[in-house]
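Database export, one record per block. Field names are fixed; values are copied verbatim from the stored entry.
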Amino acid sequence: MRQITVRQESWPVRGVFRIARGSHTEVTVIVVEIREGSALGRGECRPYGRYGETAEGVIGAIEALIPRLAAGLDRDELAHHLAPGAARNAIDCALWDLAAKRNHQPVWMLAGLPAPQPLTTAFTLSVDTPANLAQTARIEAWRPFLKIKLDGNRDLERLIAVRTHAPRSRLIVDINEAWSRADYETIVPELARLGVDLLEQPFAAGNDHWLAALPRPVPVCADESCHDGEDLAGLKGRYDAVNIKLDKAGGLTEALRMKTLAEELGFSVMVGCMVATSLAMAPAFFVAQGAAYTDLDGPLLLAKDRTPGLRFEGSRILPPDHELWG
C-alpha cells in the first residue's frame, strides 16, 4: 500500500517578479510525495490563478485522489481522473520519480529517451522601467539568452534599453496577453529590427484569430493559448511555436506526448516553467532536450532553492541528480 502526503510551501522570490498580470515577492508550490516501500517519489506544481487554480483547490483535487493512488493508480490512468493542470502535474511527476527509484533506473531510460545533455536556459527580466531594465541588461549581458516580460506600456523603450545594453544576447519577448492589435502592428516591425528571436503570446487567448491575418516577421509562440496536445491543431496558421509547461500540460507524460505532436505539426518548441524550485524544473529538463528554446530559469529567480537543486553553470543547466528527481 502506498503512502501519499501533500504539502504547501512558500518560496521567496529574488526581489520582485513582475509580469503584465501582477507582481510577486514569493511563490506558492504544492509538493506531492508517494512512498512505496523504501522508494519515495516527489512532484512539485505551481497553482496559477490565470487558469483558475488556487493552492486550496489543487490540494483538494490531489487529496480526493489519494485513495486511488494508495491502491496503485498509475500514470496511464491518471488522465482519466484529473484534467490537465497543476494537480495532475504534481502527481504525474511523483509517479515518474517513484518508478525511477523503485526500478533503480533514471526517468530518461524508463521513458525511452536519449541520455540527457546540459541545456542553456533563457534568463527572465521582469517588467520594469526602461532605466532599470538598462541597468539589469548591463549586468546580465553575458547571458546567451534573455527573456523580457512586457505589459503594453513603454514596451519599445524597454526593448531598446535591453538591446542597447545586451547587444549580443538573443532575445525572447513575452507579452503575457497584454497587447492590443494596434500594439502588435506598431511594435512588431521594430522587433525584427532589434533582432528579437521570438514573440510570446502577444494577445489574449481569445484573440488568437488576429494572428492568422497579421504578418509574423518574428516567430510567434503560444503560451496561455496552449495547454496540452488537444490544443495544437487549432493553433496552426496562427502561431509558429508553442511553449510546453508541465503545470499546463498536467505532467511529464502529457508534455512528452505534446512535444512529439507539436514537432509533427511543424511547430518549434519552447519548454518553459512557472517560477518554482528545482523539483519542478527537473522533469521539464527531459522534455527540453532538443527543444528550440529552453526557459527553465525558475530557481535562478528565487532568493533560495531547495537542496539538492539543479546545478547551474551560469545559464547552463546540468542534468538533475537522482537525489533531486528522476
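Remark 1: DSSP finds eleven helices and 14 strands in the chain.
Remark 2: The radius of gyration is 19 Å.
End of record.
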